[in-house]
Amino acid sequence: MYPKIFAAFIFSLATVDICQGSVLFRATSNDTVNSSGKIVGGTDAKPHEYPYQISLQDQGWHICGGTILSDVKIATAAHCCEDYLTTWSDLRVVAGAHVAANASLFYYQIHTHGYYKTNDACILTVTEPLELNFAVKAMPLCEVEPAPGTVCTATGWGRTNPDNDRWKGPLQKLDMTIVSRQVCERSYGPLDEDVICAGGVFGQDVCFGDSGGPLVCETGSSKCLAGVTSYGSSLGCALGIPAGFTNVAWFYKFFTNDG
């Protein structure tokens, strides 16, 4: 099964307002390998174990993750979108990949259709429907915020440690436990309800390049997208400080009604 690469439109996006955190964006294009590493302290996912994960790429470089919501719509972080409004022609969406750097890419255009001002959420709309199959699947949205103590799974091609360069390797996965806002506020200051936090285990974390990717939680017998990877501590990754995720339940209408 070969990865699929699709043209896309940024349908709606939001800018970032994150208190004392640091967005988990891409490494620079001067790094040496054509993909930006992996989750810190995670393990290799099996091929197509997380078929809802996509790679958002700039001129062949993985910059952010995203989550397939339907055959035409993808959720990611606003800061993954907003820095590319002037270079939209270089962005690509890769679906169905296990090793993002192995994908053969082609050129397409992206347009914007309005945005929020305060929150880290973005919708990509592909110009032709994705072919949904075992390697490319949609993930339902969580309508209710996960409770503290819920164990969820983050995935991505972000850095394997805060100091390494880009790497070409398989998708990484990491179980992360939801923590209360009160716990998270010890690191970031006051937080609004548009953010949820998870993790806080030393040596395990989402990191640069994981932005926009999914945090998926189990609700009963099913799974749903609970968070969009947004930011971590400005001190660095995997230091025992929880990571911040866009609260999908808070933005449920935004994601389902296109803003």
UniProtKB/TrEMBL annotation:
Classification via Pfam families: Trypsin
Residues in the signal sequence: 1-21
Record PROSITE patterns: TRYPSIN_DOM, TRYPSIN_SER
GO BP, sorted A to Z: proteolysis
GO molecular function annotation: serine-type endopeptidase activity
Domain Peptidase S1: 39-259
Keywords, in A-Z order: Disulfide bond, Hydrolase, Protease, Serine protease, Signal
Entry annotated with the keyword Disulfide bond: yes
InterPro entries the UniProt entry points to: Peptidase_S1, Peptidase_S1_PA, Peptidase_S1_PA_chymotrypsin, Peptidase_S1A, Trypsin_dom, TRYPSIN_SER
Family according to the record: Belongs to the peptidase S1 family.
Name this protein carries in UniProt: Chymotrypsin BI
Native organism: Folsomia candida (Springtail)
Taxonomic lineage from the root: Eukaryota, Metazoa, Ecdysozoa, Arthropoda, Hexapoda
